[in-house]
Amino acid sequence: MGGSITLILGGARSGKSTWAERMARESGKPVLFVATATAGDGEMSARIAAHRAARPPEWRTVEAPIDLSGAIRESGHSETWCWSTV
């Protein structure tokens, strides 16, 4: 079964994550959220916490700040993916 990839680009804090999360939610499929950001300071810690709180509890989350390709291989391909760098 073929799939599609949607790349969402934009400036910092321009709504990319919100749009991507809405698309994932509306897909009707299980969602795997791949989080790659790391908290280097208090502001980033707060942004990551806000993103975590906004995600639906049924979404599976994989933290992959370094080995994104490994996370992709291990997760399978049965879900809608939402990959965020915050």
Poorly predicted spans? none
DSSP, total strands = 3
Profile the largest sheet. Answer: 3 strands, parallel
Radius of gyration: 13 Å
Mean pLDDT: 83
- Our count of helices gives 3
Oligomer: single chain
Report strand order across the widest sheet. 2-1-3
Order of helices and strands: HEHEHE
Q: Proportion of β residues?
A: 15-25%
Helix content: 25-40%
Taking the alpha carbons of the first and last residues, their distance comes to: 30 Å
The 3D shape can be described as: globular
SS-based class? alpha/beta
Brief rundown of the structure:
With 86 residues, the chain is an alpha/beta fold. Helices cover 37% and strands 16% of the residues.
